[in-house]
Amino acid sequence: MSALPIAPVFDVAAIRRDFPCLDQQVHGKPLVYLDNAATLQMPSVVLDAVSHYHMRDRANIHRGVHELSQRATASYDATRAKIAAFLGAQSAEECVYTKGTTESVNLVAWSWGLANLRPGDEVVITQMEHHSNIVPWQLVCERTGAVLRYIPIDKRGALRMDVAREIIGERTKMVAAVHVSNALGTINPVRELADLAHAQGALMLVDGAQSSPHTPIDVVALDCDFFAFSGHKLGGPSGVGALWGRAHLLAAMPPWQGGGDMIAQVKLERSTYQPPPLRFEAGTPNIAGVIGLGAALDYLQSLGMDRIAAYEADLLKYATARLSVVDRVRPIGTAPLKASVYSFVVDGAHPTDVGVLLDSQGIAVRTGHHCAQPVMDFFDLSATARASFAFYNTRDEVDVLADALEKVIGWL
C-alpha cells in the first residue's frame, strides 16, 4: 500500500514525542493507540499545566484576594478566550464551561427546552446521534409534550437530507445534530441543517465532540445557535468542556443549576443571577481541567487544525485501502464525507473477541455500540469494532492493525 503518497503535513515522529502515553508496551508489544474517538491522549504541555496548577497555584477562583487565588483565576479565565478563538466565536462571554458535550446538551435541553417547548412542538435529531443527544431530548419532550422526530440514515451511514427537508417544518423548534458521527465517522452537512432550521424559525444545536479535534471550527460559518464539545476528545482533561451559544439566547435562558458563583444576590425571599456565562456555572468548577483544556487548545492551534484535518484525511484514506484487502473485514459507515473513524465487523466473529485479541497484540480499539444503539439497530448489529485515528498515528500503525487482524482472523 506504500504507493499511496504520504501527505507531508508535519513531523509526526516529533509530535509523538509530545505524548508520553504512546511510548510504552502493552502485553509485550509497542502500543498502537487507535481509540482516539473515545479519548485523545494528553500531550506533555497539558500534563505540565495541570501539574503546575496543583503544585503552585492550587486555590479556588473568583473568591480569594491572595496571590494563589489570583493566579488560578487568571489561568482559569484565560481559557474562555481560547475557546472563543478556537470556535471562531465573537465573544468569550458566549462560551460556558461545562463537564463536556453531555452536560452542554443537557443544559440547552433543560434550560432552553423547558422554557420554550410546548405540546405539539417538535425537536428534530438524527438517527446517528450519540445517546447524549438523544436521551436529554426524550426526557424534555416527555416533560413538555413536545414531539421528538428523527432524520434517518442510508446504508452508507449518510444522512437522508431529502427526508430532513420534509421533517423540518413549521412545528420544528430545535434541530440538534452531531457534526461527525462517533460510530460511523460520517461528516454531516450541519450548515445545511441550520439553514433548514432557521427557515422555519427554529434553532440549531451542533454536537461537536467528534469534529472539534479533527477540523477547523467556525460557529459563525456554520450558522448554528449552540455548539458543544468535550475537552478529553481534544487532548485535555476529562470532565471539562464547553457550550457556545448566541449571546441573546443565553441571556434569555434561566439557570438550570443553583449555587455559588452563578448568583448576583441571594436573599431568603429570592435570588438574582449573574449574566451568562456565569449564570450556568454553579459551584466550584473543575479548575485544573479548565486550565488543562486551555493548554490543549493552545497545542492544537500550534499544530494547525487545517493541517491536522489534511493529515488525518490522508491516514483514513490509507487505512480504508489497506483494510479493504483483509479477508472478512467489512466496514460499517461508508459515507462520501468521513472523518478519521473506521468502524468494522469481522464476519463470523464477535467484535468483543476481535478487540480482546487485538489488545493482546498491543492494539487499542473500541468495541461495542459506541453509545449509538440506534445506529447498531439500523445496521442489524449489536456492536462494531472501531479504529479511530489521530494526528499522531502513522501508516505503519495501520499496517500493524491490518497484519494483526489477519492473525486474529486466523485464530478465530
Task: Explain briefly what this protein structure is.
By secondary structure, this protein is of the alpha/beta class.
Please characterize this protein's 3D structure.
By secondary structure, this protein is of the alpha/beta class. The protein has two domains: 12-37 and 304-411, Aspartate Aminotransferase, domain 1, CATH 3.90.1150.10; 48-302, Type I PLP-dependent aspartate aminotransferase-like (Major domain) (Aspartate Aminotransferase, domain 2, 3-Layer(aba) Sandwich), CATH 3.40.640. The chain has 14 helices and 17 strands. The protein has helices at 12-16, 44-57, 67-87, 101-116, 135-144, 161-167, 190-199, 219-222, 247-252, 287-303, 305-323, 351-359, 373-378, 395-411; strands at residues 25-26, 29-30, 32-33, 95-98, 122-126, 147-151, 172-178, 203-207, 226-230, 241-245, 263-266, 271-273, 329-331, 341-346, 363-364, 366-368, 384-388. The strands form five sheets. Strands 4-10-9-8-7-5-6 form a seven-stranded mixed beta sheet, sandwiched between helices. The protein has a four-stranded antiparallel beta sheet with strand order 13-14-17-16, with helices on one face. The chain has a two-stranded antiparallel sheet with strand order 1-2. Strand 8, helix 8 and strand 9 (226-230) form a beta-alpha-beta unit. Helix 11 (305-323) packs parallel to helix 14. The longest helix has 21 residues, at 67-87. It starts with 11 loop residues before the first helix and ends with a helix. 47% of the residues are buried. The model is unreliable at 1-8 (pLDDT under 50).
